[in-house]
Write a structure and sequence with these properties.
Organism: Falsigemmobacter intermedius
Helix content: under 10%
Strand content: 35-45%
Pfam family, one: DUF3553
Protein name: DUF3553 domain-containing protein
Number of helices: 0
Shape: globular
InterPro entries: DUF3553
Distance between the termini: 30 Å
Structural class: mainly beta
Order of helices and strands: EEEEE
Number of domains: 1
Largest sheet: 5 strands, antiparallel
Length: 60
């Protein structure tokens, strides 16, 4: 089953709704269901797409 995380590309901004204290994150890579994100308050985190649904942040 595909998830919204599948469309994430390097450079995109995201947040993890389950961890709002991590702050805004920038996608570093998205390979094989593993999304590496550099969060402003938590550093570099590897997220499993099947376990965590990241939310894209669209600039207005």
């Amino acid at each position: 089953m595909r998830s919204l995380n599948d469309m994430l590309e390097p450079g995109m901004l995201v947040k993890n709704p389950a961890q709002p204290d991590w702050g805004l994150g920038q996608v570093q890579s998205n390979i094989g269901g593993k999304v590496t994100v550099n969060f402003e308050n938590a550093g570099k985190i590897v997220v499993q797409s099947e376990r965590v649904a990241l939310e894209p942040v669209w600039n207005s």
